[in-house]
Amino acid sequence: MKLGDLMYYFTYYTGIHWLVKKISKAVGKDCGCDKRREEWNDIDLDLWNK
Fold first, then answer.
1. Can you say how many angstroms the Cα of residue 31 is from the centroid of all Cα atoms in its chain?
2. What is the DSSP secondary-structure string of 1-41?
3. Residue 31: DSSP 8-state
4. In total, how many domains does the chain have?
5. Which parts of the chain sit beneath pLDDT 70?
């Protein structure tokens, strides 16, 4: 699991994702969640192989 996916599932199951989408829709701007998720998935975390 990559960092972007981890943050997505954390925010999705805590309700933060729903709240941000609702607010961004009311304001009329895109929150950039999908773009940020893709960028964060490109980060290479080498936690298990030291």
1. 10
2. --HHHHHHHHHHHHTHHHHHHHHHHHHT----HHHHHHHHH
3. -
4. 1
5. 47, 49-50
* Closest to 17 (Cα-Cα) out of 5, 8, 29: 8
- Indicate the pTM of the whole model: 0.74
Range of the domain at 34: 3-41
| pLDDT digit string, tens, across residues 15-24 | 999 999 999 9
* Cα–Cα distance for residue pair 38/50, rounded to 1 Å: 25
Residues 30 and 24: beta-carbon distance below 8 Å: yes
Distances (CA, A) of 48 to 7, 35, 36, 37, 45: 19, 27, 24, 22, 9
